[in-house]
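Dear colleague,

Thank you for sharing your sequence with our group. We've completed the structure prediction you requested, and as agreed, I am returning the results in plain text so they can be pasted directly into your records. Please verify that the sequence below matches your submission; if there's any discrepancy, let me know and we will rerun it promptly.
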Amino acid sequence: MMDRIALFILLVGGLNWGLVGLFQFDVIAWAFGGSASVVSRILYILVALAAIWCISLFFRQNEVLETNNNHREINN
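Please find the predicted structure tokens below.
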């Protein structure tokens, strides 16, 4: 469940940065009173923490693929 939450937060943050890069429009800063507001800073920190969490996805075995491969080996 944490993986899905982190990926969702990272997706929202990535889309926000895409808007910043393309249109110089920061949705988080716009919605919460500027990039220096407390809420905006907390959201930026949450995006950073989600990105750090998602680094672990590169180093973990995919349980779904692993289960499917084991199931195929048993049936063959």
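Summary note from our side: The helical segments are 2-23, 27-31, 38-55, 63-75.

Kind regards,
the structure core
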